[in-house]
From TrEMBL:
Residues 6-66 form the HTH tetR-type domain. Residues 29-48 bind DNA. The keyword Thylakoid does not apply. This is TetR family transcriptional regulator. The keyword DNA-binding applies. It comes from Sinorhizobium numidicum.
Length: 193
């Protein structure tokens, strides 16, 4: 079968992310990507220049998608503590099963190594924390900074789930966050509706 002459960057970068999830960032080579997307390795080198730039472009595309999903969920989740839980549960659905979650940790490592990707993570943290914070604006006794606290609880819940993934990740996260809100803001249940 002949190679395609063109392929949108989005499709190429999706193929790159798939390779990184399966084989880790070390497994992403121009030859492997060529086999995965059908473009010649030389075309891919012309487009992305180096492996580091290819990885960064794939990661930035993933951040763009996470930003869009976060914005969509924040736009639709009620401005209540239960809405904050729904937002974070919605973000948890993308992790899939334990194998997918574990593979994504290799990709997270690349985010931590690259200053531009770390900056994207920090910016997302701020957006997510603010979105959560807005859901507690009318809750008496909600502590200042609850957005970041709850985001940290969510990340911890994902990690603890990964050690014992007997229940779906979304159910584990939901239960964990409900306990967190009940413990930190006892009056939150009264304004959940």
């Amino acid at each position: 079968m002949p190679r395609p002459k063109t392929l949108a960057d989005e499709e190429v970068l999706d193929a790159a992310l798939a390779i990184m999830r399966k084989s880790g960032p070390e497994g992403l080579t121009f030859a492997a990507l060529s086999a995965g997307c059908g473009l010649s390795a030389s075309t891919l080198v012309q487009r992305f220049e180096t492996k580091a730039r290819l990885i960064q472009a794939a990661q930035l595309q993933a951040w763009d998608r996470l930003d869009r999903l976060t914005a969509e969920l924040a736009a639709t989740a009620p401005k209540t503590p239960q809405g904050a839980i729904a937002l974070l549960v919605g973000l948890s659905g993308d992790y899939g099963g334990i194998e997918s979650y574990a593979d994504d940790l290799l990709i997270l490592r690349e985010d931590l190594r690259d200053p531009a990707l770390r900056a994207r993570g920090a910016a997302w943290r701020d957006v997510l924390s603010a979105a959560i914070e807005r859901r507690f604006a009318r809750v008496p006794g909600a502590p200042s900074g609850i957005g970041l606290l709850m985001a940290a609880q969510w990340q911890g819940a994902l990690l603890w789930w990964s050690f014992d993934p007997r229940v779906p990740v979304t159910e584990f996260v939901k239960q964990s966050l409900e306990r967190f809100v009940a413990a930190l803001v006892p009056g939150a249940a009264a304004v959940a509706g």
